[in-house]
Amino acid sequence: MFDLRYHVASLAAVFLALIIGILVGVGISGPVDNQKTKFLEEQVAKYQRQLDQNAAKSTDDAREQEAARTFISDTYPLLVRNRLREKKIAVVYVGSVDGGMRKAVNGLLGDSGAQQLRLRTLKVPIDVRQLGAALKGQPAAVGLRGRQNVEALGRSLGQELVLGDDTPLWDSLAGALADEQDGGSRAPADGVVLVRQGTPQRGATSRFLLGLYSGLASAPVPAVGVESTDAAQSATRAFARGGLSTVDDVDKPVGRLATVLLLAGASSGQYGVKDTADDVLPPFPPRNAAGG
Fold first, then answer.
1. For position 2, what pLDDT does the model report?
2. Contact, 224 vs 162, CB < 8 A?
3. What pLDDT score does 290 carry?
4. Confidence at residue 192, expressed as pLDDT on a 0 to 100 scale
5. Bridge partner list, 119
6. What is the pLDDT at residue 43?
7. In sequence order, what DSSP letters do the residues of the chain get, joined into one string?
């Protein structure tokens, strides 16, 4: 587990390296605003002093965590600004979603310059008979009806959601599957953010969701499953089984930063502060990968 209490130094090293990279990159691409440069230099120096003091005095974990939170919160707006400029992101909620998670997802998109291309909120558990009836006579649904085919149906829906263009399955199932829809279906998405709240599903719904996750993950754009630090039932293992990257602390600045980096093309993986995470943050992709 990569807990910030015990990995502040490594996290700080990532951010210090990033700041240096930003300064070098901006210096190459154009003139640097002196005030911004001074701000970054002061933040780096301030945080480095805090780390040095902590190492020398063996300060307690709470103080180290506070230093990390302060540093990340102060630098987050600059680190994500325009990183996803003009990128169009599809957002999928599985089950009901609370205002806090919606605010976190909308916030990271707005902070990074991305646009929400479309939103879908899915009803769970699914009604297999209702879905089958809605697909009756639909040529695109051949081999996808019935309880034995729910995983394949979920995979096809995930691919349609990302790729856009003709979406006969979504068109047929909108009333039976979605509680909320916003945005058209034709334009392709540049990335996907997925949120699952509530209890894990079982049986046919579990298989359907696994197919949906794998369908999203199989598309040629980044797909990230996210949750809050205090999620009652973690979904990260289920997301990872479907091939998705994950972020388990999207309610925090560091988690929103990790999500933005993944959508910008960073190495896929499991990120955050829980046992399921491989690291706190992914490596930073080049700015031009996000058009920033």
1. 43
2. no
3. 42
4. 98
5. 91, 182
6. 64
7. ---TTT-HHHHHHHHHHHHHHHHHHHHHHSPPPHHHHHHHHHHHHHHHHHHHHHHHHT--HHHHHHHHHHHHHHHHHHHHTTTTTT-EEEEEEES---HHHHHHHHHHHHHHT-EEEEEEEE-SS--HHHHHHHHTT-GGGTTT-SGGGHHHHHHHHHHHHHH-S--HHHHHHHHHHEEEEES-SSSPPSEEEEEE-SSPP-HHHHHHHHHHHHHHHHSSS-EEEE--TT-SS--HHHHHHTT-EEES-TTSHHHHHHHHHHHTTPPPSEESSSTT-SBSSPPPPPGGGTT-
Class of domain 88-289: alpha beta
User: If we measure between CA atoms, which residue out of 79, 92, 63, 116 comes closest to residue 257?
Assistant: 79
What pLDDT was estimated at residue 51?
Answer: 52
Name residue, tokens 């951010």. 15
Separation CA 226–CA 248 (nearest Å): 6
Mean pLDDT by 10 residues, the chain (292 residues): 47 56 51 60 58 52 67 85 96 92 97 97 96 95 96 98 95 93 95 92 97 97 97 94 97 94 96 90 72 41
Q: Which of 103, 128, 94 is nearest to 216 (CA)?
A: 94
Cis peptide before 200 (omega within 30 of 0): no
How do the domains of the chain map onto residue ranges? 8-80, 88-289
Q: Name the amino acid, one letter, at 93.
A: Y
Sorted by sequence, the CB contacts under 8 Å of residue 179 that are 6+ apart come out as: 96, 121, 122, 123
Among residues 113, 36, 116, 79, the alpha carbon closest in space to that of 258 is found at 79
The pLDDT score that the predictor gives to residue 132 is 96
CA dihedral sign of residues 39, 110, 69, 1: negative
